[in-house]
Write a structure and sequence with these properties.
Strand order of the largest sheet: 1-2-3-6-7-8-9-10
Structural class: alpha+beta
Number of helices: 9
Shape: globular
Radius of gyration: 18 Å
Helix content: 40-55%
């Protein structure tokens, strides 16, 4: 495993260990909702978001109404925390799951008011997220290349079933230079094998990554790791 991947994995494990007490206080959906709501009402948005993420994990494969409640809690808490980009990311999770209740429709308007879509979409540079389930996100960071153009740094994660106890089931790291016009781009100099292409298509704040799946093409991470899929830009 690359050194930076090891560091990321260790930091995730430390975060999981450090929140052991929070897990005990948030063992059920009701407890997580109550704990998050109390923190939210006290203006403590970071612990509120943590509790609502735990709430989401406990309902993600269950009742759609409970899932929508957890997602709306996350949307609103992130909005109040001043992170409209992350609120938009959680809104996307709700919309992708065809959740369109009254609260989701209300928060859609709030997110649209809070997020500067034009500024966020003006450049490829920024932080992009891809949802992996269990309140876990894979990350793509696009930055300016000193030699011109852009560079991409992927940090893909595979959540697994027991994120709270053990952290993600697998992680990866893939870096390279982007060749293209900022809309359609190809990853280069990423030490991938011959034929292992990675392509990016950017449309506004949405970005789609296409990847060749073949022997040796996913050696940048653990079992089941991939950078392919849909991402959303959350910050510049």
């Amino acid at each position: 495993m690359p050194i930076r991947s090891k560091r990321l994995y260790l930091s995730l494990l430390l975060a999981v260990a450090g929140s052991a007490q929070a897990t005990e206080d948030c063992a059920t959906v009701v407890q997580c909702n109550q704990r998050g709501t109390a923190a939210y009402q006290a203006g403590q948005y970071a612990p509120a978001i943590e509790a609502f993420e735990r709430q989401l994990r406990r309902v993600e494969q269950g009742d759609s109404a409970q899932l929508e409640l957890a997602l709306n809690n996350l949307i609103l808490a992130n909005l109040r925390a001043g992170d409209a980009g992350m609120a938009r990311a959680w809104l996307g999770v709700a919309l992708d799951r065809q959740l369109n209740g009254a609260s989701t429709r209300l928060h859609l308007g709030k997110v649209a008011e809070a997020l500067d879509y034009q500024a966020l979409a003006a450049s490829p540079q920024g932080r992009y997220l891809r949802y992996g389930g269990q309140a876990v996100w894979s990350e793509l960071q696009i930055s300016a290349d000193p030699q011109g153009g852009y560079r991409a740094r992927f940090s893909p994660l595979r959540a697994g079933a027991r994120v709270e106890e053990y952290g993600p089931a697998a992680i990866g790291k893939l870096d390279g230079r982007l060749h293209g016009d900022g809309a359609a781009m190809t990853l280069q100099d990423a030490q991938l094998g011959a034929g292992c292409a990675v392509q990016l298509l950017r449309e506004g704040i949405a970005l789609r990554v296409l990847e060749v799946f073949a022997e040796g093409c996913q050696d940048y991470g653990g079992m089941g790791i991939s950078v392919a899929g849909g991402y959303i830009k959350v910050s510049r």
